[in-house]
Design a protein that fits this description.
Blueprint lengths: L8 E6 L4 E10 L3 E5 L4 E5 L3 E5 L15
Antiparallel strand pairs: 1-2, 1-5, 2-3, 3-4
Length: 68
């Protein structure tokens, strides 16, 4: 299933509660994921991943201030 996300910008959430974001899933194997950010290359074991999140639509920011 992760093979379909290969090449996508994604956030990876881990079992311990930490996450990596602003990177791309370069390669997806049976045991590891290669995740590339602007500054680092991560090789992540699949067994430590809780979920993977891909944004499909940009959120609209709420307006700040008072309108009339």
């Amino acid at each position: 299933m992760l093979n379909s996300l290969q090449g996508e910008k994604a956030a990876v959430y881990f079992l311990d509660g930490s996450c990596l974001n602003d990177g791309v899933l370069e390669e997806v194997g049976e045991k590891f994921i290669k995740y590339v950010t602007d500054y680092q290359i991560h090789y992540i074991p699949i067994t430590s991943v809780r979920s993977v999140c891909v944004e499909t639509k940009e959120r609209q920011r709420p307006r700040v201030g008072f309108g009339q």
